[in-house]
Amino acid sequence: MQTAKARIILSELIGDPRLVLVTGKGGVGKSSVARLIALVAQTAGLKPLLVLFDEFGGESDGIEQVILLPDAVMLEYLETHGFGPLAQRLLKSGVIDAVSTAIPGIRDLLVLAKIKQLVNSGIYDLVLVDAPASGHLLSLLSSPDGLGAIATDGPIASQSADVIALLRDQELTGVVLVTLPEETPVQETSEVYTNLTTLLATHVLSCVVNRMPAMVHRLDDLMPGSAEDRANQYLTSRSDFAQAQVQVVRGLLPVPVFEFPFVEDATQPTKAAKYLFDQADRWEIQ
């Protein structure tokens, strides 16, 4: 993909934010979409960073990535705030778990504070977060509000305020929603959009309808009732239904909506992202 083409695609998909969170219902392919955006950004001449929340996110494929595990983030926080020699002992003794239980949301806040640190580091042009599934993302993003409401002063209050400012800066931060052309995921995507924009004042950049089946047209020259006719009827019905769901998404969400094709045998996010990346020249983005 040429640099100029990549820049156009990136602009259409996400615009020009510094922090993008990619989310969706579990199993819709959000990890593949996050990696795809990172690949496009790198081709566009940017320096992206992919942020993962588990150790099994797949190969880096030339994209710089970091894995943020809550315990590790908390340990780093303690080590950099005067608890260096004691940090490991506190973690192993269970004191950290006790503190986390006593202050619900503190782990989420520290993870978000670490992401803020990466965004503000000036090292990366774009920080892409392969975020938790949408339900968990809402919980994650609401943690600074909850902690900020009970802590009026001190480091928790200041971290909460800083994270909230970043998440609600519509020029710096946005969310890409990923869904499937199916009724339940589409309905849940609409609900997530409403919660993000109304409850959390978060900017939604676009929506990707992933795994779209190939468009199939009804053939009139097949023998009625034959295997070929039944197959054609099934495939036509499936593609028509998927297109109808895309129209539902366009009607529900006032953001750009993109259709990504189904990737055969792409069981790994990196493989699916590379396939989509190789197909990018065929997208209808001009």
User: What is the H-and-E element order?
Assistant: HEHEEHHHHEHHEHEHEH
Strand fraction: 5-15%
The share of residues in helices is: 40-55%
Biggest pleated sheet: 7 strands, parallel
The largest beta-sheet arranges its strands as 3-2-4-1-5-6-7
Mean pLDDT: 85
Morphology: elongated
Q: From the helix content, strand content and strand pairing, which structural class follows?
A: alpha/beta
Question: In DSSP terms, counting alpha (H) and pi (I) runs of 4 or more, how many helices?
Answer: 11
Low-confidence residue ranges:
none
The oligomeric status of these chains comes to single chain
Please report the total strand number as a whole number.
7
End-to-end span in angstroms?
13 Å
Radius of gyration: 21 Å
Can you give a write-up of this model?
53% of the residues lie in helices and 14% in strands. With 286 residues, the chain is of the alpha/beta class. A 7-stranded parallel β-sheet has the order 3-2-4-1-5-6-7, with helices on both faces. Strand 5 (173-179), helix 9 (183-199) and strand 6 (204-212) form a beta-alpha-beta unit.
Topology readout:
Layout: H1 3-14, E1 19-24, H2 30-43, E2 48-52, E3 65-67, H3 70-79, H4 84-93, H5 95-102, H6 106-120, E4 126-130, H7 134-150, H8 155-167, E5 173-179, H9 183-199, E6 204-212, H10 227-252, E7 257-261, H11 269-278
Parallel strand pairs: 1-4, 1-5, 2-3, 2-4, 5-6, 6-7
